[in-house]
Amino acid sequence: MARGRPSKKAHIVTAAKGLFTQQGYQSTSIDQVVITAAVSKPTVYSNFPTKLVLWENVLTALTEQAESDMQTCLMGVRKEKDTSLITGWVRLWETWVGKPERLAVYRILLGEQHKMQPSTFSLFAEFESVLETVLLEWIDAFSVSSMNFFALKAVSREALLMPTLMNQSMMNKTDLVHQLDSLLT
To answer: DSSP labels for 41-108?
Structure first.
């Protein structure tokens, strides 16, 4: 492998990540990536033979970043004194939906499913497993049944993730905490 190639590849992925986040998959062209990354088109194509391969590399990078962000949040929540199950749970979800890059992943996968390959869906499953893993690590210290975990996750998805994806207001935090608490009683 030639010198500098890994950093150039990472640079292209970073440029593409910004474009995919801002414009989505369909509206992002390889020509835009070439201009944004300030590299030649052959350089892009020598590293990423198709736009889908480039997207999958971006998705992998976003998954790695999400894992780091979410573990940092989890450690912070664990360090706080007297943090309740629900307070920590909501904080983790707010961190998850608080990054435009993560929301872009959902928008792209939901809006462009017909252009994706099985490998893309596998990478998306890895992306989503980051949130699931952190949530499971959080509730591990509490006695929560798998049924309650599922219910908490479903309500949180509908109250936080879906409205954010649709550019709507999220549920009031106090109401959300009350609703989640009621699932555990």
So the answer is: HHHHHHH-SSHHHHHHHHHHHHHHHHHHHHHHHHHHHHHSTT--HHHHHHHHHHHHHT-HHHHHHHHH
Q: Is the pLDDT of residue 1 over 90?
A: no
Percent of the chain topping pLDDT 90: 88
Taking residues 116-129, report their average pLDDT: 96
Model pTM greater than 0.70? yes
Cβ–Cβ under 8 Å, residues 166 and 107? no
- Tens digit of pLDDT for each residue in 164-173? 999 898 889 9
Tokens representing residue 89 in the block: 């749970």
21-38 burial, b for 16+ CB within 10 Å, e for fewer?
Answer: beeebeebeeeebbebbe
Which DSSP state fits 28? -
